[in-house]
Write a structure and sequence with these properties.
- With 202 residues, this protein is of the alpha+beta class.
- The chain starts with a helix and ends in a 13-residue tail after the last helix.
- It has 6 helices and 5 strands, in the order ααααββαβββα.
- It has 2 domains: 107 residues, no CATH class; 73 residues, SH3 type barrels (Roll).
- The radius of gyration is 22 Å and the shape is extended.
- The mean pLDDT is 76.
- A hairpin with a 6-residue loop joins strand 1 and strand 2.
- Helix 1 crosses helix 2.
- The protein has a 5-stranded antiparallel beta sheet, with helices on one face.
Length: 202
């Protein structure tokens, strides 16, 4: 009975860890759509003289694209930089905005900034393996000093994968896992509870 209760508790916590991010994401999207729809729908429809279904979605996508266009030019980059500077001065905003930004950029960033592979490295002591993410090939200066090909591996902390440390590991000592970055991050955030369904770590 005790064993069954522990198994049910484990399954419940795993489901909770999966559902919370999903519900927060869905709620955030719906909240944004409703806000945009409530602000812009009536004036636009009164101006045009007819109803446009899905107008909130269209406007939201347009606002996101506009933000992307602004952020990719110099003036927009400076504007966002100034905004973030003020965000850093507000403790609550700072603790929410920057971790989400870092995690989003890490997972969905460009090929030069995103995690490339999920790996195991012997860290912090021999015989102990830690999950890490390959961020780039080795730094030339480091490889010259140790005389081996290396890779740069980011080792995240639990439960906040946006913090951690960078280690240079000899390429021959890196064990590449057949696991996607998203599954590995779930594993780290959950402290090992949310295991990938396809493969099991030995």
């Amino acid at each position: 009975m005790k064993k069954m209760f522990k198994e049910i508790r484990k399954i419940f916590l795993t489901g909770l860890l999966v559902m919370i991010p999903l519900l927060i994401t869905i709620y955030s999207i719906l909240w944004m759509l409703n806000k945009v729809d409530s602000v812009f729908r009536r004036p636009i429809e009164e101006l045009l003289g007819f109803t446009i279904y899905g107008l909130g979605i269209i406007i939201t996508v347009g606002i996101i694209l506009l933000a992307g266009v602004i952020a990719t030019n110099y003036a927009g980059h400076k504007l966002f930089g100034t905004t973030e500077y003020f965000f850093k001065k507000i403790p609550i905003v700072r603790s929410i905005y920057f971790p989400i930004k870092q995690l989003t950029q890490t997972i969905y960033g460009s090929a030069n900034t995103a995690f490339r592979k999920v790996v195991l490295v012997r860290y912090p002591t021999p015989g102990v393996y830690t999950i890490g993410f390959v961020t780039s090939t080795g730094v030339e200066n480091i490889e010259d000093k140790i005389g081996k090909a290396t890779v740069s591996v980011f080792i995240p902390t639990t439960p906040n994968p946006t913090s951690g440390m960078l280690v240079a590991v000899p390429e021959e000592d890196v064990i590449v896992l057949d696991m996607c970055v998203e599954d590995a991050i779930k594993l780290v955030v959950s402290g090992g509870i949310a295991k990938p369904s396809s493969k099991k770590l030995e």
